[in-house]
Design a protein that fits this description.
Length: about 110
């Protein structure tokens, strides 16, 4: 490795010191990680899908994710059909708020329970 000297704002140095202490690693390791990440992003590299899958495996704890997704989409379709939410360009539902945010009487008038 090549040794180098950098100048940092005092707040940045303090943040790095705290972060290094929390992670139990030298500050230099954090800086090397940050520079590596910056280079990877600047070069347009992406994280391989396999690595992402391995890192996220098991984080969903609500049973079958596909069934949950389909149920959510059915609910969105139902609410869109009732005019509670609107579909934009197909990219997102706008506005989407939990039913608790809607006026209960307005929901009742639309037959939403």
């Amino acid at each position: 490795m090549v040794r180098t000297i950098i100048s940092l704002e005092p707040e940045t140095k303090q943040w790095l010191d705290r972060k290094a202490a929390r992670e139990g690693v030298p500050m230099s390791r954090l800086v090397r990680r940050a520079v590596s990440e910056f280079r990877r992003r600047a070069d347009g590299e992406t994280v391989p899908v396999e690595r992402l899958l391995a890192r996220t495996k098991g984080i969903w704890k609500r049973g079958d994710g596909l069934s949950y997704q389909r149920a959510m989409r059915r609910e969105w379709d139902r609410l869109a059909a009732l005019g509670v939410i609107t579909r934009g360009s197909g990219k997102a539902l706008r506005p989407f708020k939990p039913l608790a945010y809607f006026d209960a009487s307005a929901l009742a008038r639309r037959g939403i329970t």
